[in-house]
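Notes from hallway chat w/ T.B., transcribed later so I don't forget. T.B. wanted the structure written out for a chain they're using in a teaching module, and asked if we could keep both sequence and structure tokens in one place. Agreed to drop them here.
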Amino acid sequence: MALGSTAVLFIRNLDVELRLIDFDRVESKNLAAQWFVKQSVGKNKAESVRLQLANFYGGKAEALGVRLGANNTEQLLAGADLAVDCFDNADSRIVLSEACRGRKIPLLHGALAADGTFGMVRWDERFTADREDVVGQATCEGGEHLPMIGLVGATLARAIQDFVKDGSRHDYLVSLSGVVRTT
């Protein structure tokens, strides 16, 4: 939820209905790199972001504390005009991509290399999910990745804002040297 929670923070100005989906619970190790407060530890991540958005900014969102899978994409994507993927595993990215393609829902991916050296924001038609080097490989857990998480999350938010504003679909490559629009 590092990229997703960061992007939500930066799209709080949009007049859109947000549906936050994450089955996971906040752990103390998440506080370093994800948009959570200590009081969120032990609570569902989607619900914690929803509460923070409401409490800090008066923003509204729907939180669903479930795992996205092939068996529930129809329900989870119902009525969606845009889906945003911030998963940290290829299997979930692939399930979401197939579901969005089947329903003709635009899908924007935000991704960060496990070693924190680069990130990307790319629309589904130009994105291929990479398999993890090791199943369950940790990403975004340490504070050393905070600058990259911030850059990728902010770039993801900008891509969402542009899409909402005028339907633009730009891809970006992000490094500590800067952000480059690739389309």
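Follow-up for T.B.: The first strand starts at residue 18 and ends at 21. Might be a good example for the class.
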